[in-house]
Structures
1.
Amino acid sequence: MPVLESTPQSAAVTCCGLAATPVTEDDAARLAPMFKALGDPVRLRMASMIAARPEVCVCEITPAFDLSSGTISHHLKTLREAGLVDSERRGTYVYYWINPEAIGALSALLAVE
Amino acid sequence: MPVLESTPQSAAVTCCGLAATPVTEDDAARLAPMFKALGDPVRLRMASMIAARPEVCVCEITPAFDLSSGTISHHLKTLREAGLVDSERRGTYVYYWINPEAIGALSALLAVE
DNA sequence: AGGCTGATTCGACTTCCATCAAGACAGGAC
DNA sequence: GTCCTGTCTTGATGGAAGTCGAATCAGCCT
């Protein structure tokens, strides 16, 4: 191993929350699935659509993608299980909305300070 | 389709950059791979380690994980190909450092305003 | 009840991914 | 040059993920 140039805290402000505190194994296990859920172009756009309004009906999401309704449902489930969104059926339609705490947790990790 | 309750821009400040401007198909294709790269607990911790200092030697990363050196290399390559880190060999050792622009792009998307 | 529409789940298929072991490559020390 | 150490690449494999079509469930409406 080479000699370290010993710059421990100096970098804490150079980048972001990622650098501020080391991500523990537990943190990584909790946060990685959220990043993973956003790591698909379809789901990233879905999350964007949902975040853009207080709540969004699945019936508006479906026609925005060239995918079967089953696949749409699958992706929404992935976002929900990652904790990024929540949903509720009201009568005929199902509505999804963003979970600000989850977004906040990811944002805090990446935020440049 | 249900009647929309027409709340177009009002939500732009309720959440984050995700909501500020709709993520286009091209944006999604560019940004999703970065989220995907962070969507693995091992890589998230690696990114955190690398971000914590100006640059980090692979020889310091390897012993921090209970994985073969081949697997370590594979994950670092994934981070590099996603544009999140860069690397350089200097003599015997290879050093990795964070790419602040990439982190900034993700941060801007999630930042709560 | 019966039928209709919206949404989810299921089964199957294909592709991608994390991992290891083993080999290849790079660079220093001798 | 020949070793040795550090890193990367390759090949193989088991498992996860994205997709579709079909079946199923939920809730209106007549």
Note: The CA atoms of residues 43 and 75 of chain B lie 6 Å apart.
2.
Amino acid sequence: MERKRWECSALPNGWKREEVTRKSGLSAGKSDVYYFSPTGKKFRSKPQLARYLGNSMDLSSFDFRTGKMIFSKLNKNRQRLRYDQNSQNRGKPDLNTSLPVRQTASIFKQPVTKVTNHPSNKVKTDPQKAVEQPRQLFWERKLSGLNVYDIAEELVKSMELPKGLQGVGPGYADKTLLSAIASALHTSSAPITGQLSAAVEKNPGVWLNTSQPLCKAFMVTDEDIRKQEELVFSVRKRLEEALMADVLAQIEEAAIDVAGLEEEEEDDEEDAEEV
DNA sequence: AACCTCGGCAG
DNA sequence: CTGCCGAGGTT
């Protein structure tokens, strides 16, 4: 009998998936899919699974039957349509209206649900793990030389930091500083103050505060905040314009594609007459 | 009582 | 057609 059970990569560790082929009756040959939680509870449908997991997991892109996360359901050929005009995809209008979704791994730490037999064990969050692990002194140097590229691989003008920010330690250029601060903002929920001890400048290897980025202590002025708000506002506006242009371009493309399909139909009719 | 299967309905 | 779940049969 066809009965296989295996670890399911799309679900948290310990979950199993099983597919059972029906061997008699009108529906013989069809198959049923079941999932087993780490505690052994059996699930026979996506709603049942969703009910159990609550909001701790987004199943909207989870394909219950295959057990895989299915991205094509959300985004599919949006990018190909725009940048791969030579492929077979040409000529087919993209009727997908769903919102774009970030597909990169999240740099933010997400909560992890720990399920055990013991009811008092509930939810633990992961961030401590990243913070408590020992880190190499001046590890941020590995980040130097990283740049931002747009989809056409053109170098994007790098961001500028306020003049008040200055790096600390061996060979710290502005670019590394930016990376270091960005990393600090993502890996710690504590306030970012920079290196408060003045001794750091004399002997960074000894006096470095490893939970802070490698920059001198700084003050954020009201002026800095106001400027940043302005910047965010203008960037948002540019994003809005870009999105609008994208939507318009897509509508236009769809119109062209429809025209193309109609032409093809005419061609078909001509071909038919010749035969 | 828990588990296994397949029917049958809803979308 | 597929997904979901009820319910009868089996262990």
Note: Confidence is low (pLDDT under 50) at residues 73-115, 126-131 of chain A.
